[in-house]
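PROTOCOL LOG
Step 1. Enter all chains and additional molecules of the complex.
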Amino acid sequence: MGRPILKVMITITTIKDMRDYSAEVRRNGKTIGFVPTMGYLHEGHLGLVRESVLTSFRTVASIFVNPAQFGPNEDLDKYPRNTEKDKELLEGVKADVLFFPSVREMYPEGYSTYVTVEGALTDTLCGALRPGHFRGVATVVLKLLNIVDPDRAFFGQKDAQQAIVIKRMAKDLDLRADIRVMPIIRDEDGLAMSSRNVYLSPIERAKATVIYKSLSAAVDLVKKGERSVREIKLAMSAMLEAEGVRTDYIAAVGADDLRPVEKIKGRTLIAVAAWVGSTRLIDNVIVER
Amino acid sequence: MGRPILKVMITITTIKDMRDYSAEVRRNGKTIGFVPTMGYLHEGHLGLVRESVLTSFRTVASIFVNPAQFGPNEDLDKYPRNTEKDKELLEGVKADVLFFPSVREMYPEGYSTYVTVEGALTDTLCGALRPGHFRGVATVVLKLLNIVDPDRAFFGQKDAQQAIVIKRMAKDLDLRADIRVMPIIRDEDGLAMSSRNVYLSPIERAKATVIYKSLSAAVDLVKKGERSVREIKLAMSAMLEAEGVRTDYIAAVGADDLRPVEKIKGRTLIAVAAWVGSTRLIDNVIVER
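Step 2. Run joint prediction.
Step 3. Record the structure below.
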């Protein structure tokens, strides 16, 4: 009597091995779901993995902190990492493969190719404040999709602009993978799950809940019939300022085209990027009328 | 006794149908070779198709005059087209599929995504003179490779810089397809085959042979021991000027990195872009020592 044989997640670190794995799955006519992450996993990520496991024969999650999407003064070097813990979490939700390449593997000497989604989708919101960010995101996601070759890939609505940019890229470049965007996962007090929440001190953690509270207030205003984006933004900024939370933006834009709106009409994305202490957090809701 | 059943090439015009065709071939474990063209086919293209037919179970050729790679003052509108003749030629060399999408199919309303290969590979030679040209080339080739999903794709060495840019992109973006570059096909008098040769009047056609003659002279000089790029370029420009052929550039660059060299050393690409009347022609040789 041996111990029961447990299915154990495998870790792949080279592009070639990852490609071979996926080719073998596809050769057998099976499907692959893919969840790209930068690690330091939370319930938001795990929800994506669970969805992939439910819908796909094999699930690949990747951990890659992508230098190309960080600006020179951003938090690349201190971005939180805990790969051993991440592996346990991924095994817990039954991922089949962790793809965990090095920076050198992804961007070898002489690397020169970048993908840009141009226009309104990237020159607004975070794109306006983080030049080159979405170029880095689009490039690494395209590379990962080409390497993993999934049938579907899962992204979180928390990064609303990222999700729209990736959907646009996938459509424009005729990618095979179906891009699926899953709802925001929140802590009990409403704070959107983010790897960056770990930066918050206990006092900041408490203050940070005002971001979701301000979005909820916006939803309530819309429900009560308020249509003026100006009024809604004033109400939100008053709440955020009262907590000493500085904003990069409070924006109301078309949920699909990200174009600014003055009146709430159709599906509208209300999005906030805010600084709690030295931590930049983003969150959003979609309102409809 | 019916007539013999001939294998007839099929023409596909939609991305969906093309993708379905390729998925079916791959599901059966067979290989696909791909030859992207802008049509008005000549022996250079047909040689690529023959090579694909020899090496692959199915061969797809595409005809798409890609607006994204033409500058505002270039010859997009008058670029030569003759699709019926092209179909006959492709059938003659046993292509299985012609992929022939419309501009609207490839770049629908709202199209926003572009691929750039940055740095030395694109800011020199034709890239310096045709801003955005290689961005257009890289973007359409990536789209076509994603749609056709070939095991290998064939390009001509006549467009030397294009071939290097595409190889770089394919490597950087982890594309599955093997990029194969085939030798230049020339007319009896040495003129490199090009769809643009049709623009030449009989007198211009005779003058145009000086481009290859100047490259041959460069090869002879290198064989005789000349190493100075300055001397080689002087000899070439004297020949070209004697025929009244104006040059965009005469260049000697590393055959792989396209960096300018002063002495012939290792594999060196000697390339010419020249105007014969109002027609711009390019040609090149690789010398080694």
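Step 4. Note key features.
Chain B touches chain A through 28 residues (CB under 8 Å).
The beta strands of chain B are 10-12, 32-37, 58-63, 97-99, 113-117, 152-156, 178-182, 246-254, 268-276, 279-287.
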